[in-house]
Design a protein that fits this description.
This protein is an alpha/beta fold and 347 residues long. It folds into two domains: 207 residues, no CATH class; 111 residues, no CATH class. 41% of the residues lie in helices and 11% in strands. It has ten helices and ten strands. β1, α1 and β2 form a beta-alpha-beta unit.
Length: 347
């Protein structure tokens, strides 16, 4: 089978992966490697020829070998069971590359003075795996989100297919169609296929980098703010059921669940809508879990779906703005009003 031909001079260590139909895991694995200075200018060779793979410095998703010392990162071989530390999902080539190179990627993003063994790097390495990479590993290894036997026993059926909305589907759609016209020259045909792979690698890589940017620049700085609010929660409720962000709201759910350490106590979170003077305030219910639509304690049913003066009269609280029909969030013109909504809702 024809192999890739380099289009321009490449000076980095050569990366190898398989040709033919491509998937999200090797597309992301290649992109993550190229994020690092060592591999930034690396040539990519897509082949299943063992002799050509031997010429590659680093090989992902092909070759039947996992050996980090030799930079071989395949997961298809019999007996492969490697997982990310603290997780149970078997790794794909993306997970393997992230396991070994992820801390370097995170440290690089945080700044040149940050070392790979820094606590914040460890925190982000774990978070990025759980929030992004693990789902890709599971998808490539055919691992369902829910236990199929349990789903079947419960008699549950999907209401619709979500397949078109996964990153795996996004990458899959970039593969050539079976009936696309192909160049008659095998070399040109391979080049055309490789061009589609490069597009797919860039596409999923952009999504990964968006997550990396969010978790390093927004999620991580929010941690200390949530910690401070968590430490002060008994100032607003003796049982610590109300969390207040006095300056501005930040991404709080992940950090709150971690700080609670399996002992859920916070029911409502209060925060201003903006940093502007006189900004209105929100009261938001804490979900039972990060991805749940079920609140630990929804706002009173009698308030739901009402607004403004009508809601003032029903609740007995001045300055109300709204309460969502589902009861998971509401608003008031002032902090004092939002706090009173929390007090009454707790009662």
């Amino acid at each position: 089978m024809a192999e890739s031909a380099p289009k321009r001079l490449k000076t980095g260590p050569k990366i190898g992966t398989h040709n033919g139909h491509f998937h999200a895991d090797e597309a992301l694995a290649v992109h993550m490697l190229r994020m690092l200075p060592t591999y930034h200018d690396s040539e990519l060779v897509r082949t299943r020829d063992p002799k050509l793979l031997e010429t590659c410095h680093t090989v992902v998703d092909v070759g039947g070998e996992y050996d980090a010392q030799r930079n071989r990162y395949d997961h298809h071989q019999r007996g492969f069971t490697t997982t990310f530390p603290g997780r149970n999902t078997k790794l794909s080539s993306a997970g393997l590359v992230f396991k070994h190179f992820g801390k370097a990627i995170v440290a690089q993003k945080l700044g040149k003075d940050v070392k790979e063994d820094a606590p914040e790097v460890e925190l982000l390495h774990n978070k990025l795996y759980e929030s992004f990479i693990e789902a890709l590993d599971a998808h490539d290894n055919g691992i369902s989100v829910y236990d199929p036997a349990g789903v079947s026993a419960a008699g549950l059926e999907k209401r619709y297919s979500e397949g078109g909305f996964t990153l795996g589907a996004v990458v899959g759609r970039l593969n050539p169609n079976w009936n696309d016209e192909k160049p008659s020259d095998p070399v040109k045909a391979q080049e055309a296929e490789d061009a589609k792979f490069e597009k797919a690698s860039l596409r999923i890589g952009e999504e990964f980098e968006r997550d990396l940017d969010y978790y390093t620049s927004a999620w991580l700085p929010a941690r200390s703010i949530v910690q401070e609010a968590f430490n002060k929660r008994t100032e607003f409720d003796p049982e610590g059921r109300v969390l207040v962000f006095e300056g501005q709201s930040v991404p709080w759910k992940d950090h709150l669940y971690t700080l609670e350490d399996g002992k859920p106590t916070v029911l409502y979170v209060l925060y201003p809508e903006s940093t502007a003077a006189g900004a209105k305030w929100r009261i938001q219910c804490v979900p039972e879990s990060k991805d749940s639509f079920v609140s630990r304690k929804p706002l009173p049913e009698a308030w739901r779906g009402f607004r403004d003066e009508e809601l003032d009269g029903i609740s007995g609280i001045g300055g109300c703005v709204f309460v969502h029909a589902a009861g998971f969030i509401g608003g008031n013109k002032t902090f004092e009003g939002a706090k009173e909504m929390a007090v009454k809702a707790l009662a």
